[in-house]
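The instructor's notes for this session suggest beginning with a concrete chain rather than abstract definitions. Hand out the sequence below and ask the class to guess, before any prediction is shown, which regions might be ordered.
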Amino acid sequence: MIISSTPLRISFFGGGTDYPVWYREHGGSVLSTTIDKSCFITCRWLPPFFEYHSRISYTKVENVAFNDDIQHPSVRACLQHLGINEGIEIHHIADLPARTGLGTSSAFTVGLLRGLYALRNQMRDRRALAAEAIHVEQDLLHEAVGAQDQVSAAYGGFNRINFGVDGSIEVKRILTSPDRITDLENHLALYFTGFSRIASEVAQEQIRMTPHKKLELDSMLQLVSEAEDIVVNPNRPLHEFGRLLHESWQIKRTLTQKISNANIDEIYEAGISAGALGGKLLGAGAGGFMLFFVPPEKRNVLRLRLKKLLCVPFTFSTKGSEVVVYEPEELYDQSLAIERNLVYS
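After discussion, reveal the predicted structure:
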């Protein structure tokens, strides 16, 4: 049995990283951190004594006769990518719900690949793991996703991630004092808006509009460097980070009409009126988690103003995807699977 743990992430600032065509032509950067919330995936070779060949458990349970019959797109694609046809059992649980802007889909793909390799007694370094997850989601599944979520999940930590036009990916760890990080954490509040959406559906519209938004994306890219300097420079007041978040959100919400809506705007304005200096909707848009930058002394005022929303406590995490339980199993002889098919047929 193998259990992998893969962290979710918060993206503070990014320019062009959500759009593969864009960053492959113009480059892109993102400032993001993983948090102490994760998804956990259990993998094992399924003994050939059940009526089904493989069993996949997530928000639904699939018992299938062939791995190609698996409906979960990422599971099916990962098994095909690795050429796994043997019977397998996979269980997924997570600290926070999917489709909420925290990179849950890519964390699942990264964690599943990590677990499947471990099941075969193989290791992959973080760069290769991120690259394979990007390949699965972009090339095999043709999903409208970028690459920042996969890289964040594989590497973990507070990073600036740069995407070069030559296809290179640079992960630059943010180096600053622990007190500075703690201070930043104390200024952040995460609220669940209660709305879910399919990120790729929102992203499709963003991709369509991208060629017409070069000025906005260039501005968002410049904010990445400015935000990085605020975090690493102890002489700069931290409240500038909050002001920058506000500026970034005002730009992002103009990229398409699907990023925000009346409900999201109302939540954001309520947060600002309660003392938050800035914030943003995480992920592709249209729902999920809203992040606010709020002075600690005004945190309770914000909580009262947004009392109808769930506030999720969190801290930054330095961990990337990892195997937390490794108990390798031997594959059963293929003849037993053939015999099983004869018996149950």
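Then share the key points. The mean pLDDT is 89. Residues 41 and 92 are 5 Å apart (CA to CA).
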